[in-house]
Specification:
It contains nine helices and eight strands. The chain has about 260 residues and is of the alpha/beta class. InterPro entries: AceGlu_kinase-like_sf, Asp/Glu/Uridylate_kinase, G5K_ProB, Glu/AcGlu_kinase, Glu_5kinase, Glu_5kinase/COase_Synthase.
Length: about 260
């Protein structure tokens, strides 16, 4: 049993380049940090986006006219590709990983939730890194998460995590646009602080992921209110996970 559990959510914009291609070295760097923590008695649950992008890499295109159907096809084809990446990378560090796909229904009180708990606890007891993602191939309408930020928050609560890290492609929540000279990075936000006014100004623009800063702020506050410290930070920074765990002033930290 590891003494500490953290949930790390990696967004699509972290793992892709300007051409919307999966960047292997970025994934490898994240796995390296997770392996480092594992050796120091901290186990990570990884919530990973990227299946739809990976599916597009394989298929190139899709003839389905319906947008939801295209997403299902791309995700169904891309999910094994993502797991092949992760399996190989974790294997290089002498570690094992397992896939956990879910829909929103699986977190509702009752047998589905109990089954999820059993799955995660079983993997963690065996020292296996769970890699979670929305089951995009079957999740539609009411069974869909808002985005993987919501999934990460639900997983953090489910496994009684000590911390949630939401990794994106900006350094955190700013008081304005991240590239504006007068903008300041907010390093610490409490759940009752009125910072919603900064959200629209801090958005960089639409990427391939579903979740923007507005969603991240809501999820971060909701998770922190459950006494799970939550960070929004830049996943492309080389040692971002380790820097946060070492208490360095990086990203935006949310607490009660």
């Amino acid at each position: 049993m590891h003494s500490k559990r953290i949930v790390v959510k990696v967004g699509t914009n972290v793992m892709t380049n300007m051409n919307n291609r999966i960047v292997g070295p970025i994934l490898k760097n994240l796995v390296r940090q997770i392996a480092y923590l594992y050796e120091r008695d901290i186990i990570t649950i990884l919530v990973s986006s990227g299946s739809a992008i990976a599916g597009k890499e394989v298929l190139g295109g899709c003839s389905a006219e319906d947008k939801s159907t295209r997403r299902q096809i791309y995700s169904s084809v891309g999910q094994p590709r993502m797991m092949r990446h992760y399996y190989s990378m974790f294997h290089d560090f002498g570690m094992r990983c397992g896939q956990v796909l879910a829909t929103k229904r699986d977190f509702a009180p009752g047998k589905y939730r109990e089954n999820m708990i059993n799955c995660y606890e079983g993997l963690l007891d065996e020292g296996i890194i769970p890699i979670a993602n929305e089951d995009d191939a079957v999740s539609l309408s009411m069974s869909m998460f808002t985005d993987n930020d919501e999934l990460a928050s639900l997983v953090a609560e489910l496994v009684n995590a000590d911390m949630l890290l939401m990794l994106t492609d900006i350094d955190g929540l700013y008081t304005g646009h991240p590239e504006a000279e007068e903008s300041k990075l907010l390093h610490h936000v409490r759940v009752h602080d009125n910072v919603e006014q900064y959200v629209q100004a801090s958005e960089k623009g639409e990427g391939e992921g579903r979740g923007g800063m507005k969603s991240k702020l809501k999820i971060a506050k909701d998770t922190a209110s459950k006494n799970i410290p939550t960070y929004i930070a830049n996943g492309k920074n080389e040692n971002i996970i380790l820097d946060i765990l070492e208490g360095k002033e990086v990203g935006t930290k949310f607490t009660i």
